[in-house]
């Protein structure tokens, strides 16, 4: 018998996120049932709730930065037990057979991965509902273990913001002495500074705001460059081994590309919109530079990121809220009035 659970859902693009009761499926043999303790609030939750990407299906229960405790397991599950502390990120399934899945890159599944919310279950086509809820049921292949030593509240955003920054730094082999720049100091950018610093890189923040200088340095940044200052930008021309751009809206990439060394990469992780203004092809050709994209990370890499975070005592800077404050939190996110992620204490659902 499916289990009735309480959550918060958007019923339309214009409605507030509000209480909503729905059913979680019975356990399949490979399923893990998780009591949700904390759920991070990602900017994509707001985009999806308001149908800003024109792909939302309602009712929509957001949330893909989930920390919880295993409450039950299916008959074939051997790697988790009731009581284990676990996490669920942006995906809950993939085809498991394509080249990307076989390589542990489920986020690039050629058949399309199944997202934690606003997706469809691959077996019964029922809608997936996310972590703004009491409980979730997920295949054990898409559950990660929370290492000892990680604070559960601040670990939640690691499952999206954390892995989004860790994956490109690992893919492009950031190592001690590399010069890495992060564009933007928000939920993604502040994690990029922490991870790149822990990897031994010399880390620079690009920002438009003088108010971010001391914050970035307190997180480990070696330098801060004001992107609005032409002289500062000229001083780092042809300087960086890797740039990771976290800015979530349209902006000019060209000034930053000019600061890359020859044969290096500019990685976009924040902007899901068309690139405007256009890229100066001459700057790319004359430096054999590349523009790349990166999306979250596979399940094995997400587990590696959590283990790395525990080893280096890395966590997200968070503000914990009750679920009843979620609509206010969305408005504050639009004003960048959070340092740097909201996390919902799901115990507040009981009230």
* Overall mean confidence score, pLDDT: 96
CATH class categorisation of the largest domain: Alpha Beta
Class from secondary-structure proportions: alpha/beta
User: How many E strands?
Assistant: 17
Summarize the structure.
The chain has eleven helices and 17 strands. By secondary structure, it is of the alpha/beta class.
Task: Provide a descriptive summary of the structure in words.
With 351 residues, the protein is α/β, with parallel strands linked by helices. It has 2 domains: 3-160 and 297-350, Alpha-Beta Complex (Quinone Oxidoreductase, Chain A, domain 1); 161-293, NAD(P)-binding Rossmann-like Domain (Rossmann fold, 3-Layer(aba) Sandwich). 24% of the residues lie in helices and 26% in strands. It contains 11 helices and 17 strands. Helix 4 packs across helix 5. It is globular and about 65 Å long. The mean pLDDT is 96.
Which helices and strands appear, and what pairs or packs with what?
Blueprint: E1 3-9, E2 18-24, E3 31-41, H1 43-49, E4 66-73, E5 85-88, E6 91-93, H2 99-102, E7 114-115, E8 135-139, E9 144-145, H3 152-155, H4 161-171, E10 179-183, H5 187-198, E11 202-207, H6 213-219, E12 223-226, H7 230-235, E13 240-245, H8 254-257, E14 260-268, H9 281-285, E15 290-293, H10 299-312, E16 318-322, H11 326-334, E17 341-345
Parallel strand pairs: 10-11, 10-13, 11-12, 13-14, 14-15, 16-17
Antiparallel strand pairs: 1-2, 3-4, 3-8, 3-17, 4-5, 5-9, 6-7
Question: Main attributes?
Answer:
single chain; 351 residues; alpha/beta; Quinone Oxidoreductase, Chain A, domain 1; Rossmann fold; 2 domains; seven-stranded mixed sheet; six-stranded parallel sheet
